[in-house]
Amino acid sequence: MERRQHLPAQGSNGERPLAVVTGASSGFGMLTTLELARQGYLVVATMRDTANNRMLMQQAGDAELTGFIECMPLDVTDHGAIADTVNRIIDMYGQIDILVNNAGMAIGGCIEEIAMEDWEKQMDVNFFGMVAMTQAVLPFMRERRQGKVIQISSISGRLGLPGYGPYAASKFAVEGFSEALRLEMLPYGIHVVLVEPGAYKTSIWNKGFEYMEARVPAESPYSGFFNAILRYSKNTAEHADNPQEVARAVARIALSRYPRLRYTLGKGARAAIIGKSLLPWKWFERILLRELEK
Ligand SMILES: NC(=O)c1ccc[n+]([C@@H]2O[C@H](COP(=O)([O-])OP(=O)(O)OC[C@H]3O[C@@H](n4cnc5c(N)ncnc54)[C@H](OP(=O)(O)O)[C@@H]3O)[C@@H](O)[C@H]2O)c1
To answer: Are the beta carbons of 215 and 122 closer than 8 angstroms?
Structure first.
């Protein structure tokens, strides 16, 4: 991480620069909101239902950051509401310096058995929501020739794991979109950044397990494989890292003058990417499948 290049957060008028975070009611979104406010940003914390802001605002109160966080309702699958919300933010604050596309969910299961409507839901939240949000914010960043779009992708955007086909597909889409956008926007002084966390302890895991368990057919031919994946995932979730690490990394990226395209976070994620790039695929897949069978 480019520690030397960190700038004090300061807007054009000496006021706090403005950051927008999606999915800020829990997990990385909530912690990133707090960390950005701590680092000198005014943060618009968007969430599907602002009644779910209790935990965020309680922690903001404890850290004396309440005055630097504004909660707004936003479901990223509602594209009309995205345009209205971004316009409202611009009317209120005049600019958006940082967009953190964080809202997400994980749909798993065996590919043959996942209903089309679940594939669509996964893409709507993790990919199309992020596209719509980015499109709405870009004109304002482009006009000022500055800004950062920080995408919360995943190790699943670099490596498709069995049992998580829809999630991996959505995050691979985020990766391709962001690589292209990075190159389109660099001439305008806008940096697009991919954050690729491994496993961190947030509520996404349990929500995903509930979703998977509710949908697996009683007589599934994949039940043995599915249960092995579920067991492996539950064990991974239990030993996952502290999500504060991701929030701090996002704030460092926001403050960095010239951030890289990719930040892979967590020991397991970095090891997986090195393994995938160095080992022949045939060896790599054997190791992965053996791990799952343990
Ligand atoms: N935790 C990990 O191990 C991990 C690893 C790699 C990447 N990620 C990524 O990190 C991001 C945040 O996830 P998290 O781990 O912090 O889990 P989380 O605590 O479940 O947070 C997900 C957030 O997204 C919101 N959200 C879901 N659907 C939405 C929609 N349609 N519109 C707006 N917001 C919506 C959720 O809001 P509600 O409360 O309304 O559902 C929640 O605030 C996701 O993009 C995820 O893919 C997580």
So the answer is: no
φ/ψ of residue 285, rounded to 5: -70, -35
pLDDT digits (tens, 9 = 90+) for 82-107: 999 999 999 999 999 999 999 999 99
Residue-range definition of the domain harbouring residue 86: 3-293
Residue 6 has pLDDT above 70, yes or no: no
CATH of the domain at 181: 3.40.50.720
Closest ligand 1 atom to residue 197 Cα is 6
- Ligand 1 atom 45 nearest Cα: 104
Question: How far away, in angstroms, is 26 Cα from ligand 1 center?
Answer: 7
Provide the domain count of the chain: 1
Instruction: Indicate if the pLDDT at residue 178 is higher than 60.
Output: yes
Q: Whose CA is nearest to atom 34 of ligand 1?
A: 23
Pocket mutation for ligand 1, best pick of 30, 31, 33, 48 (most atoms within 8 Å of C-beta)? 48
Rounded Cα distance, 126 and 27, in Å: 15
How many angstroms is it from 282 CA to the middle of ligand 1? 33
Check residue 215 and give its pLDDT.
81
**Catalytic residue numbers, as ranges:** 167
Q: Crossing angle for the helix pair 54-62 and 27-38, nearest 10 degrees?
A: 30
SS3 assignment, position 16: coil
CA of 126 to the centre of ligand 1 (A): 9
Let me know: does 253 contact 259? Beta carbons within 8 Å. Answer: yes
Rounded Cα distance between 264 and 282, Å, is 24
Mutate to test the pocket of ligand 1, among 20, 22, 26 (most ligand atoms within 8 A of CB): 26
The structure tokens 């701090």 sit at 248
Between the CA of 162 and the centroid of ligand 1 the distance, in Å, is 20
Q: What are phi and psi of 244, to 5 degrees?
A: -60, -30
